[in-house]
């Protein structure tokens, strides 16, 4: 059980609004799950980009794919911000889907 931030009435866990005043309740647990799922998708697609670049274009693209993937993994793990330039380069050079996911995320 928790309390409404607006009126102070006791509300049940998992409620989306206060039954007394109708104030919207933020549920950070759902937001955290969404972020973790998108981080996992970004990591998977960046790894796939490295593998496909290695198979299709040999070793030259790996000069930027592997370092960019390692940097992205470290920043995502620490929760650090990733710059727009890095996101665009991921889109162009590593994996299109991972780059789009990175660009769509506001917090990273």
Can you count the helices?
Answer: 4
Derived from helix and strand composition plus strand pairing, the structural class reads mainly alpha
Helix content: 55-70%
- The protein's oligomeric status is single chain
- Cα end-to-end separation: 31 Å
Low-confidence stretches: none
Q: Radius of gyration from the CA trace?
A: 20 Å
Strand elements, count = 2
Order the strands across the largest sheet as they lie in space: 1-2
Walk me through the structure.
The chain has 108 residues and is mainly alpha-helical. Helix content is 62%, strand content 4%. It has 4 helices and 2 strands, in the order E-E-H-H-H-H. Strands 1-2 form a two-stranded antiparallel ribbon. Helix 1 packs antiparallel against helix 2, helix 1 packs antiparallel against helix 4 and helix 3 runs antiparallel to helix 4. The chain is rod-shaped. The mean pLDDT is 78.
